[in-house]
Amino acid sequence: MSDFQASPRTPEEQERLVEAGRLLFAGACDFVFGAQKLEQVPPPNLPEIAFAGRSNVGKSSLINALTGRKALARASSEPGRTKQLNFFDFPERLTLVDMPGYGYAKAAKDVKEDWQGMMFSFLRGRPTLQRVILLLDSRIETKPSDREIMKLLDRAAVTFQIVLTKCDGLKPGALAAKCAQATDLARQHAAAFPDIIATSSDNGMGIPELRAELAALALPQAG
């Protein structure tokens, strides 16, 4: 069971965070490094938010929607095969880490095992990592690989938050049911943050709310 007890924000607090998120993501955001091996990972510096999800979950599209850029994050031409960790900096505030997609059906077994080994080592040993945003495709059922990653995050003692993608493709009733399922799933994991965010990179659903969550984890604006 999740150990988290989320304190509900007042409307004023949420409004302030939404504006803080808008300002943060309207500022500079630059690709700073791509690491294919753990020894290449840049030294810990700013608070970090990592994005994880199955191949084709819409991770690159969501990062681009958050930052308002069309090609900041790019999907691999060979899903499930890249092992690169990509780092994007909001100078002096926050770092986003784009993790390789997992669960690609055609990926070789050794590639899948490499992903888990590298990711577990990164997650467990990264003192600046504040949260993992775990993306689940709202249109399909939760896969065994998603559940395995949640268990991995529990073992690594890394807080993760479930964010649903491609939610514009669901009718309101189906979306409400999917959010309820995701909430129940989060409750089954000690490392899970309880709040679920439903998003769409196409129509902007949930983007202000997700920006607000990330802004709450960033360093304060200097000056």
Describe, in plain words, how this protein is organized in 3D.
With 223 residues, the chain is α/β, with parallel strands linked by helices. It has one domain: Rossmann fold, CATH 3.40.50. 35% of the residues lie in helices and 20% in strands. The chain has helices spanning 11-26, 59-67, 109-124, 144-156, 172-187, 207-215, and strands at 30-35, 48-53, 85-90, 94-98, 129-137, 160-165, 192-198. It has a 7-stranded mixed beta sheet with strand order 1-3-4-2-5-6-7, with helices on both faces. The longest helix has 16 residues, at 11-26. The model is unreliable at 77-81 (pLDDT under 50). Keywords: Cell cycle, Cell division, GTP-binding, Magnesium, Metal-binding, Nucleotide-binding, Septation. Necessary for normal cell division and for the maintenance of normal septation. Its cofactor is Mg(2+).
